Amino acid sequence: MNSKLSETHQKAICSQLGHVQLKLLYKASVHGYTAAAFHRQCDSLSPTLSVGYNASGYIFGGYTTQPFDQSGQYAKDDQAFLFTFEGRKLIKYPVANASCAVRMMSNCGPYFGESLVLINTGMPVVHSKAASYYPFNAAQMHGNDLNLIECEVYQLVELTKFEDPWRTVTWNLEHKLELMNYIENYKPQISSVSQARVLLVGPVGVGKSSFFNSIKSVFRGHVTNQAISGCSSTSLTTQAGREGRLLPVILCDTMGLEGSNDTGLDIEDITSIFKGHLPDRYQFNPATPLDSDASGYCKSPSLKDKIHCVTYVLDACNISIMSAKMEEKLGAIRKKANQLRIPQLVVLTKVDEACFLVKEDLTNIYQSIYIKETMQQASAKLGIPLSCIVPVRNYTETLDLDVNCDILLLSALTQMLRSADNFYDDFSDQLSTLQTRE
Q1: Which of 86, 199, 253, 436 can bridge 236 by disulfide, Cβ–Cβ 3.0-4.6 Å?
Q2: What pLDDT is attached to residue 262?
């Protein structure tokens, strides 16, 4: 059973209704121009798109979220609309009387208020009346040609997966080794800096310590747990490498952020960390910001002591329900980082828990519609471009390494190093400007 509705017209309709595809339920020329055939194929299914075709070449119809039945009653639907096409352009006529959007008639086909009926009392004709239910221009919608040559009804089925990945990733061992080689041989652009310093910031329980453990696991060649996830109230400066060699990056973990203002990491402490004042393994006190007289406090930090990239670690399962207080706190941190011109990224954890497609196969990560929408939500909440958001899966349950998991983790670390390069570039530009002025 082939669709008469062209691919171009299908795309025009679907673009208005989200990530959906059309499934053909009823075709009058195949199933019969009768109300019985229509109801047999379409009842109890929703949402649906009903399409009529006339001899004058018009393509028109109606959309409803309500399932058809034969009760004789009206069904309320404030999302219903009638439509027509002008070439490739979709023209919509929204419902004006939502309480009478659709009528469930046993002796008719699709019945939209009193404005449009396709398959009227078993005949291949259109009943059309531009009443108050759906105000429309009859000449524009169907050219006043009420004789159908075809009628189709489609169910709209929600898509979970893009046809093609929206980011390109090579999923093989060779690519993993290329990423590892890039990271291990990375050198900061400033000679006085031997390691890029990346600060991990995020709410309690999102997987910051697990992210470090996972990175260390990749370079150790087996799953390891140096940082006790969710248990640290101190800063945890972490380094990883193969065969005893240190990586040219330091991940600085901190205690998790709390939603309330009087608990968790203080914003002033964050600022001190950014500027390089914070001693390693400093014991945080939410009630008292870091004092300049504290043991180990660095009063004159050099560039190597400062933070070169801020990475917000967020749980993909909780983006949509993030509290206003947490958004406010993250926004305050972001503002401080912007003032200090520190590049920022977002690492999105627990993507496999958030999406069944990703749980089945991690290589679906950039084909999952849900994951992309979640990343877009994170972008909107933090004000960080989508290009600066990277999804990962930490090693929290498995005992063995997985190449695809490693590739996502290494890709995230690579983006951190590239962001640090942007920080060094900006620092060099500022230094050159000062020298020119002198």
Answers
A1: 253
A2: 61
> Distance between the two ends of the chain, CA-based, in angstroms?
79
Average pLDDT, the chain: 89
Q: At CA 145, angle to CA 143 and CA 151, rounded to 5?
A: 110
SS (HEC) of 314-339? EECCCHHHCCHHHHHHHHHHHHHHHH
Judge whether 133 and 101 are in contact, CB under 8 Å.
yes
Gap between the Cα atoms of 3 and 27, Å rounded? 8
Contact by Cβ (8 Å): 157, 13: no
Of 339 and 283, the one with more pLDDT: 339
Residue where the block lists tokens 């490693």: 406
pLDDT value at 391 more than 90: yes
Spacing of C-alpha 113 from chain mean position: 37
Q: What percent of the chain has pLDDT over 90?
A: 72
Can you list the positions of beta strands (E) in 244-353?
249-253, 309-315, 344-349
Cα separations in angstroms, 359 against 100, 168, 351, 356, 405: 43, 19, 8, 5, 11
What tokens does 68 get?
């058809």
Which DSSP category does 156 fall into?
A: E
Eight-class DSSP state of 241? -
Decide: 98 and 87 in contact? Cβ < 8 Å.
Answer: no
| pTM, rounded to two decimals | 0.76
Phi and psi torsions of 219, nearest 5°: -85, -20
Residue 60 pLDDT grade (very low, low, confident, very high; cuts 50, 70, 90): very high
